Amino acid sequence: MEHLFSRPSLKISGFIGCILLFAAAFLLSVALGQTPIPLQTTFDALFNYDETNTEHIIVTTSRMTRAIIASVIGANLAIAGALMQALTRNPLAAPDIFGINAGALFFIVFSATFFAVDSLTSYMWIAFLGAAVAGVLVFFLGSVGRDGLTPIKIVLAGAAISALFVSFTQGMLVIDEQAIQSILFWMAGSVAGRNMDMLLPVLPFMLGAGIVTLFLGRPINILMSGDDVAKGLGQRTILIKIITGLAVVFLAGGSVAVAGSIGFIGLIVPHIARGLVGPDYRWVIPFSALIGASLLLLADVAARFVIMPQEMPVGVMTALIGAPFFVYIARRGLSRHD
């Protein structure tokens, strides 16, 4: 597979370039919006805060928090997507294939319909629980049988669990139409209106999973060569698959719990990362984190201007960006099998 950065020195240079891209996207996210703030004022707000300055207050209380949350969510979804594509050996795999979004949404609608829950913070914990339950169910169903956990079985299990939760969710929304209004913005996916109080409770899960993924690069490289080869090299394949799956649940589940359903980041970013550094997951994972964070930050900036003075949910913006890419990947995969 051809990739742009073939030598280690080029990969290091590319990684530095991704860091600079992320820094630029972060600054744009803090500076741009309905109230444009000059970059100099942004720096002053960060390093020389004046509590009487309205622009400084906007930067520190709203824009900075939003940019941090978008960065964390974008990185998490991108890493989760990369892990999913490695685990299933499917270039179209994304966290959605685990039924994580569907499970989270079902638990949200269930709590809103039968327990009248209407707090965004409560939704966060309920969604995290739903995402975790969906992930465990998919792993359990994908592991049943003589062959154990296989790529095709986990794909089929994810599709079945997603369809099940979506059907239940639609049934409940028909029963209680008021629930639609209370969760509509969450369903679309957004980092607007979120605060650090929503991120901090699930951040330890995200950080723990993110740190673990940094040590999964070499085992995943071996696993990608096939289960038989991996076992021949002494790798405990079942353990690696379980750890990888749990990392996906914590990363994607935590992201869905905080920001709702944001699609396509987990699908397209791993392809971009592999196009830069090749199939070596020791590089794919950190590159995916930086590119995913940058992409979601830039998508969030664009979402602020599309229908000003209102904002478009960033989940809609990522869908607009990702749908053509999805079609391209699907067509390329089909053409290779013709």
Describe the protein's architecture and organization.
The protein is mainly α and 338 residues long. The protein has one domain (8-332): ABC transporter involved in vitamin B12 uptake, BtuC (Orthogonal Bundle), CATH 1.10.3470.10. The chain is built from 15 helices and no strands. Helix 3 (54-88) packs across helix 14. The radius of gyration is 20 Å and the shape is globular. The mean pLDDT is 84.
What layout of secondary structure does this protein have?
Elements (H helix, E strand, L loop, with lengths): L7 H24 L7 H9 L6 H35 L11 H15 L5 H24 L7 H25 L2 H11 L7 H4 L3 H12 L2 H7 L3 H6 L4 H23 L5 H13 L3 H23 L10 H24 L1
Percent of residues in beta strands? under 5%
Low-confidence stretches: none
Question: How would you spell out the order of helices and strands?
Answer: HHHHHHHHHHHHHHH
CATH superfamily (homologous) name: ABC transporter involved in vitamin B12 uptake, BtuC
What is the alpha-carbon Rg in Å? 20 Å
CATH topology: ABC transporter involved in vitamin B12 uptake, BtuC
Question: If helices are DSSP runs of H or I spanning 4 or more residues, what is the number of helices?
Answer: 15
The CATH first-level class comes to Mainly Alpha
Number of domains: 1
Helicity level, as a percent range? over 70%
**Inertia-based shape:** globular
User: What is the subunit organization of this protein?
Assistant: single chain
How far is the first residue's CA from the last residue's CA? 19 Å
**DSSP strand tally:** 0
CATH architecture: Orthogonal Bundle
The average pLDDT is 84
Class derived from helix and strand content? mainly alpha
